[in-house]
Every structure is written in structure tokens, then in C-alpha cells.
Amino acid sequence: MKVVYTYIILVFCLSSIEAQNRVSASAEIVRVNRGQSVTVRKEIYYNANGRMIVRFMYPEEYYMVTNSFGEARIYRPKTNEVMVINDSSMSSEGELLYYFLSNRIEDLGLRSLGFSLADTRTEGNNIIRSFTPENSASKISRIEMVHENHLPIYCAYYDAKNRVIQKIFYSDYQMFSFTAFPGRVTEISYISPNDSVVSRMLYSNIKVGRNAVSPYFDFSIPPDAKIVDSDLLMRR
Known about the structure:
The chain has one domain (21-235): Clam (outer membrane lipoprotein receptor (LolB), chain A), CATH 2.50.20.10. Helices cover 13% and strands 53% of the residues. It has helices spanning 2-20, 96-101, 230-235, and strands at 22-33, 36-47, 52-58, 62-66, 71-76, 81-86, 115-123, 126-133, 140-148, 151-159, 164-175, 180-192, 195-208, 226-227. Strands 7-8-9-10-11-12-13-1-2-3-4-5-6-14 form a 14-stranded mixed β-sheet. The protein starts with a helix and ends with a helix.
């Protein structure tokens, strides 16, 4: 009887830990280039075990189910078709919310992407860290990340000629019991001296731990979904 009781307690504790280590959020991405804008709306459901469900709602409904290894499946309910992808770039650990949930805000995953800390300096209340690529063939010469009150607020990517090719701003932080998330992320990518792409991502309805309750955490692609290639899936 004691063994059974201990097992029940263990299961309860493990379930509590899992419930505390997940997050859900809504996101709207607006990308502007040459006066043309594209808007995408999605919902994100992330578990600490690495499983992530992204429900895209606009301009078209489809789902992406992925894990930390980049084993991803993209499902289109309209046609009951699924595309299978194995690519590290599809890893759930590439989602910004993951770095805050796992308390990896010092580098936001730059070390795992092959960058090493080269320098740290302080300017007023800001801590500025400089990262350099371990791969000498990288087109990025360095990345500077600025933290204010231990939270990232700015990041700049430099090319081999020391020109800024991308800027990222993190703002409108929402505070939670054990972490914080930026409500707004603005990216400016300089694709040429006279052209740039501006992307703005707005996070809303962020819920953490036990407050993150949704059936989409357990979403599964129907077993009878037809496997197709990427061109067929998105063309139909």
C-alpha cells in the first residue's frame, strides 16, 4: 500500500512539474517591404519537453507540430494533408518563447547556433555582450546584445565589413512569477543599401504554467492524413 501511495505522489509531482513548464501565446506578425505588408496570425503551445504546436489561423489555417530535434509535421486540415520535415532549423528551440521559459535570456540561443561570447562591457544600466561565430566562413562577423535590468532589449548583427545587417528590438515586457516575455519584437533586416524588411511580432494572451490550459497542447494530426511534399501542400 505504501508503494502504491508513493507512486501516486510521484505521478502527481511529475504532472505538476510538467504543468508549470509550459506556455501558450497568441502572436501577430506583420512584415513590410517596399510598401507591401503581409500579416500572419498564430497561436503557440509549448511544452517543456520540447513539443510545440503552432496553430496558424491567418491567412490560412494549418498546424505545425515539432520538437527540439526539428522533427516537424505541417498539417493542413482543409485537405487532410501533412508534410513531414526533418530539419534542425524547425526545432521548437528556435521559438523565442522557449528561451525565456528555459531561462536562456543571456544569449537567446546564440551559443547553440555556433556563437561564442567574445566581450562583455557595461554602459550605464546596460550590459552589452558581443558574440563571434565559431565558423570562420560565417557571413556574420559579430552579434551585439544589450540587456537592461537583465532583460534583452536590443540585438544587432554585423557583416564582414562591420555593417549592421539586422536589428532586433525587444519591448513591452510582461512579468510572470519566474520569467518575463517581450510583448513586442521588432526586426529590421537590411537586404541592400536602399532596401529593408521590417517585421513586427506582437505577443498577447500569454499564459504560463497552470494558467496555460488548452486542448491544443495535446493536438495530434489525424492518422489518416495523406503525406505530400511541400509544393503540393501549400499550393492547394
